[in-house]
Design goal:
The protein contains 24 helices and 29 strands. The chain folds into 4 domains: 216 residues, Alpha-Beta Complex (Spore Coat Polysaccharide Biosynthesis Protein SpsA, Chain A); 55 residues, no CATH class; 203 residues, Rossmann fold (3-Layer(aba) Sandwich); 183 residues, Glycogen Phosphorylase B (Rossmann fold), CATH 3.40.50. It has an 8-stranded mixed beta sheet with strand order 3-2-1-4-13-6-14-11, with helices on both faces. It is globular and about 80 Å long. Helix content is 38%, strand content 18%.
């Protein structure tokens, strides 16, 4: 059995690389041989070089910018049809397949063959990485219009389709050759070709089936139709109606002539009249200059670099970042000055005495206030007097607009830890200050849905809440993992004396709230039971000496802090799970990006990112915060066959939905909302090319 994946790409380097990696893992899990053919339409972001670096077995067709999706796929299919593959897999380069996807598609084809005795086209549905809603799938015709199509939802059994979205489609090579691949009528068009292919397959006597369940993740295309885009002139909007992303006359009239019956001319004319009307009333006004925005970060840890580079690449904001250094081992380290370039400005942070690293004044607060910025995006910290200065000035002077980003746990679980009347009074005051600050901001950017619900509960307007899905550069982690060899992993094992078969990992700062003493106790208990396991701790912090002195630390390996993904990748690669008894936060996303499940306890200091963790799906949650309970939770990872692999697969899928692109889009949406009728209206909406 051999499958050839065919893809088209244009300027989506990270997505394309991640997509190919998911396909390779899925094909390997199905134990089939495979080829990859990628048709790239003049990408300028290094897509071709990246694919060659990470997946040199890929056959790459370097095409001109005149090739849009249909034309590029036509070229790729023609090359793949000349090979020895039994099946072609049409694959959009933004689809992240599940590990079992290829096996499920082949199984669906076998079942269809048994049912009707002939070759069939199998369509795979994909779902949104965040909402879980079906985004692309098989389709059924509904009503008189030949192209009024209803999206089908997988129901656990094969479903007959009339046609399909071409995001994930398994096509027997015999069927592809019989139909001649994608019709040349659509070679200079972005869409239409998949709909036509599905109809032609049915007309030729081949069945089209939807696979029983979703087999991957893909966000929906939210780009504004070019003829409705008020940022371009009316002449360009008018021309766009017949452009590659619209309805070119030859392709559109030809498609409707094939499937529209005697009224094809009516359906064609109606389309152009509708688009003409829409072009007269565009969705957005002509763009003014880019908004000037200041980010007051306080601390700027390394994981934020990817976010700001992605924001810079959008060229939607004229922004500056102000940040300062941390306070020894009590806070995360900020990046070195100059890491992000000219728009990053190191300043001096001030800290509260005996405040456990809490910032009293974020460096750059005054510069953000006096720097003629239209909006300031600051960290949601009520202990930061710089934020309060910006908040009060916004209330009194009306500028700059203030957006706040953070956890937004307005009902803090830490209140349960209060001891004594003064402590309870302090926490009650802090809670009220949090609610006041959140309500008074122009927009809030909580990291998770939990933060959104908390803001809604305490009176923040729904339209002012933009969930950013706090994340890191997931694609960079996936690239680091893909570039890693087994020899490199073994070399790291030897270098640090990691000898156990099962490695339980911790990556982060070592402070008391993490409760790593519980992790060491649990691993020591499992070792006394005869399990071949070992704790590997990567990081440093104020608790390091105390942890090394614990009785359970004898078999543990302590590794100095590492900050780049190539350095960290070998440790994640050898890990069965990452263990974070308490105070787990962004480490959940970091671990998921490498396909490593996370094990936590029901602690009091977890960050909101644990909302991404689902017990027995992509991680495990112990019943209580102690060594025995954690050991009981970890034991099945070594004794239950297939558990670790199942959790790992789900962790990878969760990571594909936590992209930097979503975070950037949430920030831009918040600025659009905050600056209505002014420069924010000029922010380009997301255009998903490819």
């Amino acid at each position: 059995m051999r499958i050839a994946a065919v893809l088209a790409s244009h300027n989506r380097r990270e997505l394309t690389v991640a997509c190919i990696g998911c396909f390779i893992r899925s094909a390997a899990a199905a134990d089939v041989a495979f080829d990859i053919v990628l048709a790239d339409s003049a990408s300028t972001d290094g897509t071709v070089a990246a694919v060659r670096e990470f997946y040199p077995q890929t056959r790459i067709l370097e095409l001109s910018s005149a090739f849009w999706w249909a034309g590029a796929m036509r070229e790729a299919i023609a090359v793949a049809d000349d090979g020895v593959a039994d099946f072609l897999l049409w694959l959009n380069d933004d689809v992240m397949l599940e590990e079992g996807a290829v096996a499920e598609l082949l199984d669906a084809h076998s079942n269809a063959l048994v049912r009707n005795g002939k070759q069939s086209v199998i369509v795979g549905a994909v779902i949104d990485p965040v909402s879980g809603a079906v985004t692309y799938s098989g389709q059924k015709r509904e009503g008189e219009h030949p192209l009024r199509l209803v999206r089908l939802h997988p129901d656990g059994a094969l479903q007959a389709c009339d046609t399909f979205n071409g995001n994930v489609v398994l096509v027997p090579t015999r069927v592809s050759r019989s139909l001649g691949g994608i019709d040349a009528l659509f070679e200079a068009v972005q869409g239409m070709a998949d709909t036509d292919f599905g109809y032609r397959a049915k007309a030729a006597g081949f069945d089209v089936w939807l696979a029983p369940r979703p087999i991957g993740r893909c966000a929906s295309n939210t780009a504004v139709a070019p003829w409705r885009d008020g940022r371009i002139s009316f002449a360009r909007r008018l021309a766009a109606i017949g452009g590659p992303r619209g309805y070119p006359w030859r392709a559109w009239s030809g498609l409707l002539r094939r499937y529209g019956g005697k009224l094809w001319w009516y359906w064609t004319l109606r389309t152009y009249l509708r688009c003409l009307g829409e072009s007269l009333v565009p969705l957005e006004p002509e763009p003014p200059r880019r908004p000037r925005v200041a980010f007051v970060e306080g601390l700027l840890p390394a994981y934020r670099i990817g976010l700001f580079k992605a924001l810079e690449s959008r060229a939607a904001l004229d922004f500056d970042i102000y940040f300062g250094a941390g306070l020894g081992q009590q806070t995360p380290r900020s990046i070195p000055a100059g890491t992000l370039g000219a728009f990053a400005h190191p300043r001096t942070n001030r800290f509260w005495p005996w405040g456990k690293g809490r910032i009293a004044w974020s460096g750059g607060s005054l510069q953000a206030l006096l720097g003629r910025y239209q909006a300031v995006i600051g960290s949601f910290h009520t202990h930061d007097l710089g934020m309060w200065l910006l908040w009060i000035t916004r209330k009194l002077a009306g500028r700059p607009r203030l957006l706040l980003s953070g956890h937004f746990r307005l009902d803090s679980e830490e209140e349960t830890l209060a001891q004594g009347a003064l402590s309870r009074l302090h926490l009650r005051f802090r809670r009220r200050a949090r609610i006041l600050m959140a309500r008074g901001a122009d927009a809030v950017l909580p990291y998770t849905e939990e933060g959104r619900r908390s803001c809604l509960k305490h009176g923040v307007a729904p339209e002012a809440i933009f969930v950013t899905h706090n994340t890191l550069d997931v694609a960079a982690c996936m690239r680091a993992a893909a570039a890693l060899s087994l020899d490199e992993v073994e070399q790291v094992r030897r270098q640090h004396g990691i000898v156990a078969d099962r490695v339980f990992l911790f990556v982060g700062r070592l402070y008391q709230e993490k409760r790593l003493d519980i992790a060491l106790e649990a691993i020591a208990r499992l070792r006394t039971e005869g399990h071949d396991c070992q704790m590997v701790i990567v990081g440093d912090g104020p608790q390091e000496s105390a942890l090394r002195a614990l009785p359970g630390a004898g078999g543990a390996v302590f590794v100095p802090p590492l900050f780049t993904e190539p350095e960290l990748a070998p440790f994640f690669s050898m890990a069965t799970a990452q263990v974070q008894p308490d105070s787990a936060g962004l480490a959940v996303v970091h671990s998921f990006a490498y396909g490593v499940p996370v094990v936590i306890c029901p602690g009091a200091y977890h960050g909101p990112e644990i909302a991404y963790l689902r017990h027995d799906h992509n991680g495990l949650v112990a019943v209580s915060l102690n060594g025995d309970a954690l050991a009981d939770c970890l034991r099945p990872l070594m004794t239950q066959e297939g558990l670790a692999r199942r959790l790992s697969q789900a962790a990878t899928m969760a990571a594909t939905g936590l992209t930097l692109e979503k975070s950037v889009e949430a920030i831009l949406d918040a600025v659009r909302h905050t600056l209505p009728g002014s420069a924010s209206d000029g922010i380009p909406a997301k255009v998903r090319e490819g």
